[in-house]
TrEMBL record:
Family: Belongs to the bacterial sugar transferase family.
Residues passing through the membrane, by range: 73-94
Keywords: Exopolysaccharide synthesis, Membrane, Transmembrane, Transmembrane helix
Lineage: Bacteria, Pseudomonadati, Pseudomonadota, Alphaproteobacteria, Rhodobacterales
Residue span, Bacterial sugar transferase domain: 68-252
Listed name of the protein: Bacterial sugar transferase domain-containing protein
Length: 259
């Protein structure tokens, strides 16, 4: 089944308590296997930098986080004149289709498990959450992921927004507020209490609009994405973030597949 025909939706927040019963799968492969997706220079840079003592390593992380935030603000300011007209046109098209809300808010969990309301352009019918129970038997992946091919809840404009990833643009407001970054592990609907201990390190950094699972394995399940996220947390650096940002932009422009 092609990734372009798959549609992933968030976990129904009204049924989040089910996670405690179902549980989250454990990471079965090492982070070294997941890190094979990263460029070779990433691991070489890590080995060179973090053979220091702990004090110097801590200082390097602090500088990285300051630079990362400055980079987010710089690129937001640079892109704003081009993105504002696009946001306005998309909002108008969504409103004209069915008169419903333009934005969709979903509860996600960010750095250190802190809850945040992640914004997206609405791509589904207004009662999509209520329809999850009716469509549960069509779910094609393991919980907590929920994926249906040609999901009937997606609107006409929603299909275009998902295919081009334009539905993600409102998350730039989350970035401006300091709740998210341009690059980082995708904020998950799964609460920290449902995580296995092996997964928790993905919450050590700020979530991003695009992350390693988004770039290299867009359609894989939660467990596979966790492996890449954990490797990213270990090897993260400004150069890697810039590399991933370029990959994200190129993929959106040249190979739009959507979620």
């Amino acid at each position: 089944m092609g990734a372009e025909n798959r549609i992933t939706v968030g976990v129904d927040t009204t049924a989040i308590e089910q996670l405690a019963k179902i549980g989250v799968p454990t990471v079965r492969r090492s982070e070294l296997v997941a890190a094979d997706h990263f460029p070779g220079w990433v691991k070489k840079r890590f080995e060179k930098t973090f053979h220091w003592n702990s004090q110097k390593a801590t200082s390097a992380v602090t500088r990285y986080e300051f630079t990362k935030r400055a980079m987010d603000i710089f690129f937001l300011a640079l892109a704003a004149p081009f993105l504002v007209p696009v946001l306005a046109v998309v909002a108008l098209l969504i409103k004209l289709e069915d008169g419903g809300p333009v934005f969709y808010r979903q509860l996600r969990y960010g750095r250190n498990g802190k809850p945040l309301w992640m914004l997206k352009f609405r791509t589904m019918v207004t009662n999509s959450e209520e329809m999850i129970k009716e469509l549960a038997h069509l779910n094609e992946v393991e919980w907590p992921e929920f994926l249906i091919t040609n999901d009937p809840r997606v609107t006409r404009i929603g299909k275009i927004l998902r295919r081009t990833s334009l539905d993600e643009l409102p998350q730039l407001l989350n970035v401006a507020k300091g709740e998210m970054s341009l690059i980082g592990p995708r904020a998950s609907s799964v609460p920290p209490s449902a995580y296995n201990e092996a997964h928790l390190s993905r919450l050590d950094v700020m979530p991003g609009i695009a992350g390693p699972g988004h770039i290299w394995r867009r359609s894989e399940v939660f467990e596979r994405k966790c492996e890449l996220d954990i490797a990213y947390v270990k090897y993260r650096c400004t150069t890697l973030d810039l590399y991933m940002l370029v990959q994200t932009v190129l993929a959106a422009v040249l190979k739009p597949k959507g979620n």
